[in-house]
Design a protein that fits this description.
The protein has 473 residues and is of the alpha/beta class. It is 31% helix and 21% strand. The chain folds into 3 domains: 225 residues, FAD/NAD(P)-binding domain (3-Layer(bba) Sandwich); 116 residues, FAD/NAD(P)-binding domain, CATH 3.50.50; 95 residues, no CATH class. The strands form 6 sheets. Strands 1, 2, 3, 4, 5, 6 and 19 form a 7-stranded mixed β-sheet that branches. A 5-stranded parallel β-sheet has the order 8-15-9-10-11. It has a 3-stranded antiparallel β-sheet with strand order 12-13-14, with no helix packed on it.
């Protein structure tokens, strides 16, 4: 595993912290955060941007076209925003040898996503896409896992650098059909094969064996030579939200956990029932909001800036509300899944102010698991690279909590009983807290275990509501 020192180690505070005041503190330098910061500065607000990664986030790592047709670099370069290198641990900023205790009126989280380490049967030769792109590797045979825009961009960038590349995914359809259609000719010229509806049976001696489901043609076995598998699977980076004590919930559209927020991106306060009870001074933008395309991140960053300015009396509130409706109309046409998610997170399921978290239907980064195939799960697979926690450790914890071995078969006869399986919380399993554990392991464990046991990930994070398994008379 390759990662920065702050992730693999502890965030150490270098001596006493100086206090600094900001109108708006932006954590993370994704495109949405850059757009918000620049717009807010134009209102005369004091804005500071802190980020550990590069300006523009993962979008700075490749030169391939985004879904809009323009390379991400064109979005990044238009923002003359100063980015300070540093980490925000929910309380203080650690920047080099300095420690700053920020006092802010508004906090914008533009922390983007993290790539998931793909559990690979028979091998641990897995690289993250960001690692592969930053390493300068060439002349290798690589299998990129993930058919999102980012997965296909990663594949093209690696192929142009002299690698032989294939792409695969277990999704029944390409995860980003619209983007694929736009770059299909480029993929073909680069000799990149794209396989969906695939599960990995084994990875041994430099060969990945796939089973691809071909519809009426049945199941086809494929063998792809690969020196390494590159995981392009991304989920929202929850480090700052979890450090701030924000609750997060699963979204099947994103295969990720995200905080509840309103349409502008303002994180919602929740009462004991999980019902929205007003806003906060914390906001999400970019992937943490759900906007995973560069041009939508940019548009939302500007929208968020107008909303914060309206709260400061620097922008007309009606004008900001009109901008929100225009943004919603835009995503309804371009990314209907994001429009639907926006309504559920902001207004609740069926406009109830309550968000009904779905069960996991697709574990990101899990290339060989299906709910009815538990016998083939490799218990030695590591699901937390930070602590070495194995899948078998998790399953034993579930067994102990239920005081017997739990048999899981997702059939109509079993559904009712599955609802009553007790799950351990993440806190009950060894490994944390640490920056690494919170970035990689918490979403990984919650989503994968949710898929295995047909449960909601929040049960592993916060425990199950008592009434669900109190005996009834």
């Amino acid at each position: 595993m390759i990662c920065s020192s702050w992730v693999c180690g502890e965030v150490k505070r270098p001596g006493p912290c100086a206090e600094e005041d900001y109108d708006v503190l932006v954590v993370g330098a994704g495109i949405g955060g850059l757009a918000a910061a620049q717009e807010l500065s134009r209102y005369g607000l004091k804005v500071a941007v802190y980020s550990e990664g590069p300006k523009g986030g993962h979008n700075a790592l490749d030169g391939e076209p985004t879904i809009s047709g323009a390379p991400a670099r064109e979005y990044i370069d238009k923002y003359a925003v100063e980015v300070n290198r540093g980490i925000f641990d929910g309380e203080v900023l650690i920047s080099g040898g300095r420690c700053v205790k920020p006092r802010y009126r508004h906090l914008v989280l533009s922390t983007g996503g993290v790539e998931m380490y793909t559990p690979m049967p028979g091998s641990r030769q897995v690289l993250l896409a960001s690692e592969a792109l930053a390493s300068g590797i060439n002349g290798r045979k690589l299998l990129v896992w993930g058919t999102t825009e980012w997965g296909l961009r990663t594949a093209m960038a690696l192929a142009r650098r002299g690698n032989q590349v294939a792409v695969a995914d277990n999704s029944a359809y390409l995860r980003d059909v619209k983007y694929y259609q736009g770059v299909r000719s480029a993929l073909e010229k680069l000799g990149i094969e794209v396989v969906h509806s695939a599960t990995i049976r084994r990875y041994r001696d430099g060969v990945v064996e796939l089973k691809a489901y071909m519809g009426k043609r049945g199941v086809e076995t494929r063998r792809i030579e690969a020196d390494a598998v590159v995981s392009a699977v991304r989920t929202a980076n929850l480090y700052a939200p979890l450090r701030l004590g924000l609750k997060v919930f699963y979204s099947f559209e994103l295969n990720s956990l995200v905080p509840r927020r309103n349409g502008f991106g303002e994180v919602l306060r929740l009462d004991e029932r999980g019902k929205s009870a007003g806003g906060t001074n914390i906001y999400t933008v970019g992937e943490l909001y759900g906007a995973i395309y560069a041009h939508l991140e940019e548009a939302h960053g500007r929208l968020l800036a107008s909303y914060i300015a309206s709260k400061e009396g620097l922008e007309d509130a009606d004008r900001a509300a009109k901008a929100l409706e225009e943004f919603r109309a835009k995503i309804a046409l371009e990314a209907n899944w994001l429009y639907n998610l926006d309504l559920r997170l902001s207004r609740g399921t069926d406009y109830s102010d309550l968000y009904v978290e779905p069960n996991v239907i697709d574990a990101p980064g899990w290339p060989y698991f299906w709910p009815n195939d538990l016998d083939e799960i490799d218990g030695d697979q590591i699901i937390c690279p930070c602590s070495g926690l194995k899948l078998s450790d998790l399953m034993r914890a579930v067994d102990r909590l239920n005081k017997s071995r739990v048999e899981v078969r997702v059939t109509s006869d079993e559904v009712n009983r599955l609802r009553h399986v007790k799950l351990p919380t993440v806190d009950q399993m060894a490994g944390g807290p640490s920056p690494c554990f919170e970035v990689f392991c918490i979403p990984n464990i919650a989503i994968i275990a949710g898929a295995i046991y047909a449960q909601k990930p929040s049960y592993l994070l916060y425990g199950r509501p008592k009434q669900l398994y109190e005996p009834t008379s």
